[in-house]
Design a protein that fits this description.
Number of helices: 8
Helix content: 25-40%
Largest sheet: 7 strands, mixed
Distance between the termini: 51 Å
Number of strands: 7
Shape: globular
Strand content: 15-25%
Strand order of the largest sheet: 3-2-1-4-5-7-6
CATH superfamily: Vaccinia Virus protein VP39
Structural class: alpha/beta
CATH class: Alpha Beta
Number of domains: 1
CATH architecture: 3-Layer(aba) Sandwich
Length: 250
């Protein structure tokens, strides 16, 4: 295993550690994991939150079956569509590295807000477009590693461990990649007020120095972790500036 691959795996673990640290206890409440995969991390989250009822959404049937075997109530549905749950039905909603795969991120955020109970909280984590390894890639004229341009192959960054690899399955490509500010403002637009904002991982550093750097320089860590609470939507009223709508056909 190369050094870069070890750092990549370490950074993934650091991201999960930071997510767990952001979880608040819900004491027997209901938890929903959007993109629960096989359910390993979902169970860790539920234990941390002390959830009494665990739900998940996962469209890969093999993973969904594994998650059901762990006691998670899983449904297979499109996360870019309305979720099959009642309004205000969950105390905790979580999503890790899912939003970047979705074409309809407004629907995703709006649905998180809809199913979240008053007093509940949501946690969303995703790649950070503003991380230094992405900034450096652009400075070198390379494609930032989380910004995919193909449904089939990873290309455009010779410094990427996986450059030239074919995607293992359709749907793994990233469609929208966020800075922390953009993610928080999208959430606020749909009624999710930012309650905690941090990053995890700091390429190409290993775990301990990376933790120190994300405390010093929060904006440029590898992964975004944001926690939200319900709030009125922060929607602007009135017409958009002419420059914002120029060239847009309606």
């Amino acid at each position: 295993m190369s050094y870069l691959e070890r750092v990549f795996r370490t950074t993934e673990r650091e991201n999960r550690r930071a997510i767990l640290a952001a979880v608040r206890p819900i004491e027997g409440g209901r938890m929903l994991d959007l993109g629960c995969a096989s359910g390993h991390f979902t169970i860790e989250l539920a234990r941390r939150a002390r959830a009494g009822e665990i739900h998940g959404v996962e469209f890969v049937e093999d993973w969904a079956a594994d998650a059901r075997g762990r006691g998670i109530q899983v449904v297979a549905t499109d996360l870019a569509e309305r979720l099959p749950y009642d309004d205000a039905s969950f105390d905790l909603v979580h999503s890790n590295q899912v939003i970047e795969h979705l074409p309809r991120t407004d629907t995703f955020m709006r649905e998180i807000r809809r199913v979240l109970r008053p007093g509940g909280h949501a946690i969303v984590s995703t790649n950070n477009l503003a991380s230094w390894h992405n900034v450096l890639s652009l400075a070198l004229g390379w494609q930032p590693t989380p910004c995919h341009v193909s449904d089939y192959v990873i290309v455009g960054n010779p410094g990427n461990e996986y450059d030239g690899w074919e995607q293992p399955m359709f749907g793994q490509q990233h469609l929208r990649v966020f800075t922390g500010r953009a993610l928080a403002e999208l959430a606020a637009y749909h009624g999710l007020a930012l309650d905690l904002d941090r990053t995890a991982g700091y390429y190409p550093l290993p775990a301990r120095p990376a933790r120190a750097m994300t405390r010093i320089d929060r904006r440029h860590g590898a992964f975004l972790i944001q926690r939200y609470v319900p709030a009125p939507p922060a929607r602007r009223t009135g017409p958009a500036p002419a420059s914002a709508t120029a060239g847009i056909k309606v």
